[in-house]
Amino acid sequence: MAEVVLQNVSKSYDKTSIIRDVSLTVKDQEFVVLVGPSGCGKSTLLRMIAGLESITDGTIAIEGRVVNDVPPKDRDIAMVFQNYALYPHMSVFENMAFGLRMRHVSKAEVDAKVKEAARILDLEHLLERKPKQLSGGQRQRVALGRSIVRNPKVFLMDEPLSNLDAKLRVQMRTEIAALHKRLNATTIYVTHDQVEAMTMGDRIVILNRGQIQQVDTPLRVYQDPANMFVAGFVGQMNFLTGLLEGKQLRLGDGLLLDLPDGLKANAETMQGRAVVLGCRPEHWLTMDAPESGQSFEISPERVEMLGSEQMLHFSLNKQSLVARWPSDLSVAEGQPLTIKLETNKALLFDAATEERIV
Fold first, then answer.
1. CA-based nearest residue to 355, from 288, 280, 266, 260
2. pLDDT tens by residue, 76-124
């Protein structure tokens, strides 16, 4: 397997910039997930690594070799696509063997590699079937098997689970994560699903408008987002805009929020400045919770029951917020309720730049 290094990579179509000055190192045997909203450039970036898209500026290196001008077939990568791309007239065995045969691999080696991949992916009993006789999950495993048999330096996966139903996606992401650990393969995985990114990646790369917003482990990205975009995209976050006054945040209409000690030092240098306080839905607590916090009177405008929990939608100073609430506590829409905010978990962002202050 190999390290993949992108240095100041850009991509433009005419005067439209798609990827802007992206630098990223994917370590040998690492599982890195590119995640972001539709149109952010993640699939384009993956296709540039694969050689399916040319780059406008910068360099891409695989295992220390710059591959800017190297055709896809000579980059020693394997790509798994969203639509499986299986040959409908070929059996599972033939689909998995096709790439090897095109490279004139011996019949004995083809047979051995396909059967080993089928064993790993639990496809041994399906080798004679055609794609139309397979479920969506089985077809995706065949597409994975076609990549595995080649034993490439790098696996590239472009939203491979997006065509599956919710239950099967959960199963398949577990299988892909386990497969990565078994093969110790350098893998770059593209998704727009933050849950896939959080549960599968060693590190995740958050993209927006063709630029990297943050690169870190899933937990650190969730707990320490670099800016408001990351905070709102990776896990739900509430945002409250206000003005700093002394050691408090004025939210308007006489509503003041006491800042915790961790935020006060920064607040002293930003008096009168518009800032945004960010808090997760789980940071809103019942009044009998042992954690300290500031209490607020609310009236839920909508209650979503999810079984193990319920989501309360409410407003403070005309700003929409969401709280995660225990499902065994009865809450009715419009019913007054006192809750408290665990302020020591809150974050501050600059309202103008949307960058993290603390």
1. 266
2. 999 988 888 899 999 999 999 998 998 899 999 999 999 998 988 889 9
Q: Cβ distance 281 to 346 under 8 Å? A: no
Cβ distance 59 to 218 under 8 Å?
A: no
What does the DSSP 8-state code read for residue 356? B
- How many Cβ atoms sit within 10 Å of the Cβ of residue 20? 17
- Using CA atoms, how far apart are residues 129 and 121, in angstroms rounded to an integer? 15
Phi, psi of 289 (to 5 degrees): -65, 140
Distance, first Cα to last Cα, the chain: 39
Is the distance from CB of 31 to CB of 202 less than 8 angstroms?
yes
CB 347 within 8 A of CB 317: no
Nearest to 86 by CA among 12, 6, 145, 3: 145
Low-confidence residues in the chain, pLDDT < 70: 1, 253, 262, 264-268
Strands 77-80 and 186-191: unpaired
